[in-house]
Amino acid sequence: MDERVILGAACVAEGAEWLAAKDARMAEAYALTGALPLRLKPEGFGELLSAIVSQQVSVASAGAIWARLVAVGCDAPETVERMSEEDLRALGLSRQKAAYAKALAQARIDYEALRAAPSEDVIKTLVAVKGIGAWTAEIYAMFSLGRADVFASGDLALQEATRVLYGLETRPKEREMRAMAAQWAPWRAVAARLLWAYYKDIKDREGIR
């Protein structure tokens, strides 16, 4: 794999400075936000299951459900595979999310191999699992694997931050957002961090847990 991987704060700062030098609007946002968060997360089954748990529920609810799952070892695929969907629902998962958790456990993803795979292949592997969409796969590539040039074009906060920063009349849809993000290569994941930080400043709320 010949892709830049973000290893620490210095990498994020390098990317942010590159973006600010290339794009006056990015420079404006960076002047407002200051240093950007690293946002790196663990990799593996538990991180993806946590993302599934967080879908369409509040941060507080997701945290409570996830704590119950971890308490009985459900951050390991072997545990989830042994449990029934009813067992998982008793821990707080909806019927749909219980099915997704089982599908993820049964997919037997080689997480170590993902670490060395091109980002395009990482995303393709993950979205093949029921319950994992493009956004979740892209977030995993960006933050669990540290990929520097992945962007979550379907993220509403990124779209709204882009609308405000670039003075657009309407919020860009996913396809338009993907096309706009191409200009931020090879630092698209840092552009995302910058836009999320900008969104937080202008809306006074986080765009991502």
Your description of this structure?
By secondary structure, this protein is mainly alpha-helical. It has two domains: 9-40 and 149-203, Orthogonal Bundle (Endonuclease Iii, domain 2), CATH 1.10.1670; 45-144, Endonuclease III, domain 1. Helix content is 63%, strand content 0%. The protein has 13 helices and no strands. It has helices at 9-22, 24-33, 45-54, 59-71, 77-82, 85-90, 95-107, 111-116, 119-127, 134-144, 156-165, 174-181, 188-203. Helix 2 crosses helix 13, helix 3 runs antiparallel to helix 7 and helix 11 (156-165) crosses helix 13 (188-203). It is globular. The protein starts with 8 loop residues before the first helix and ends in a 6-residue tail after the last helix. The model has no long low-confidence stretch (mean pLDDT 94).
Task: Please render the helix and strand layout as text.
Blueprint: H1 9-22, H2 24-33, H3 45-54, H4 59-71, H5 77-82, H6 85-90, H7 95-107, H8 111-116, H9 119-127, H10 134-144, H11 156-165, H12 174-181, H13 188-203
Helix pairs in contact: 1-2, 2-13, 3-7, 3-10, 9-10, 11-13
Largest sheet: none
Q: CA-to-CA gap between the ends? A: 29 Å
Measured as a percent range, the helix fraction is: 55-70%
Which oligomeric state applies? single chain
Helix segment tally: 13
Shape annotation:
globular
| Count of discrete structural domains | 2
Q: Assess the beta-strand content as a share of residues.
A: under 5%
User: From the coordinates shown, what is the CATH architecture of the largest domain?
Assistant: Orthogonal Bundle
CATH classification class of the largest domain:
Mainly Alpha
Q: Which sequence of SSEs, written as H and E, runs from N to C? A: HHHHHHHHHHHHH
